[in-house]
Design a protein that fits this description.
Elements: E1 10-16, E2 20-26, H1 59-76, E3 82-86, H2 97-111, E4 116-121, H3 129-135, E5 140-144, H4 150-156, H5 166-174, E6 181-185, E7 187-191, E8 194-197, H6 201-214, E9 218-222, E10 234-235, H7 238-252, E11 256-259
Helix pairs in contact: 1-2, 2-3, 6-7
């Protein structure tokens, strides 16, 4: 079974296709996975591997480890573009997420005031006011929407539990009033004998309608880059992504960043 990617709370910096030189913050366990999605394409593997034994990192430990790393990078002259919350699961599920964002902003301002703070989120915790407020305080509030069709979301993203409501999520994304970047994974394949493909004309048209309602600052579309737990998933070509991006921009007037 494919296992977690990140065995540290603070990792990198690594090169991000979308964000540049990125110092990662993993608010999930370092030996397991905690997520409200169980995506077929998740590079950290399926949730079935379990949450591990380390538990979620404490707020004070995240701040201490982040400060130690930023201090060392400052002394060494290591370049940095962004501090990115991602890791082995959904960062906004951490009960102290808002406080951790406050700590991160303070440390960023002290050591690397020009560096951006980004959060990669699957949009499942937007019913929590503390999470919404914290996401409004970061530079790049990057929120997932892989499909405007609930059946495709069930097949590709596989929400955990019954809380996820696609119409509610789209409304919550729209409530940011442009203070958000919407991120969409484009892929195709099958799982347990069922085809899944969010690159079709019908899927893209549904996303366009959702993007119009959300009116984000920017849209990011990308495709798989590393091994995925569902091995049948296919990488979509850069040419095809560019065609999809032009179609979205022509229909919405919103800038689309492509990563392939």
């Amino acid at each position: 079974m494919q296992r977690v990617l990140f065995h540290e709370t603070i990792f990198g910096p690594i090169h991000s296709r979308r964000l540049g030189s990125s110092l990662g913050v993993n608010l999930s366990p370092v030996d397991g996975k905690v997520c409200s999605f169980d995506c077929l394409y998740c590079e950290a593997g399926y949730n079935a591997q379990g949450p591990g034994k380390s538990g979620l990192p404490k707020r004070e430990d995240v701040a201490r480890l982040l400060e130690e790393k930023l201090q060392a990078m400052k002394v060494d002259g290591t370049p940095l573009d962004v501090i990115t919350f991602s890791g082995n699961g959904e960062p906004t599920m951490h009960p102290d997420f808002a406080g951790i964002i406050d700590d991160t902003i303070s440390l960023r301002d002290r050591y690397f005031p020009d560096v951006k703070i980004s959060v990669l989120s699957n949009s499942t915790q937007l019913f929590r006011p503390d999470v919404v407020s914290a996401l409004k305080r970061v530079n790049n509030n990057i929120l997932k929407l892989d499909s405007a069709d609930m059946e495709t979301v069930r097949l590709l993203d596989r929400p955990v539990g019954s809380r996820y409501d696609l119409d509610e999520v789209i409304d919550c994304l729209a409530a940011f009033k442009g203070q958000a970047i919407v991120q969409t994974m484009i892929t195709r394949g099958s799982h347990d004998g069922v085809n899944v493909d969010n690159s079709t004309d019908e899927e893209i048209e549904g996303l366009i309608n959702a993007y119009r309602k959300i009116a984000p600052r920017e849209i990011m579309i990308y495709t798989i880059d590393r091994q995925t737990p569902e091995r049948s998933l296919q990488r979509v070509s850069r040419d095809e992504l560019d065609i999809i991006a032009r179609r979205i921009t022509d229909a919405t007037g919103i800038s689309v960043q492509v990563s392939a």
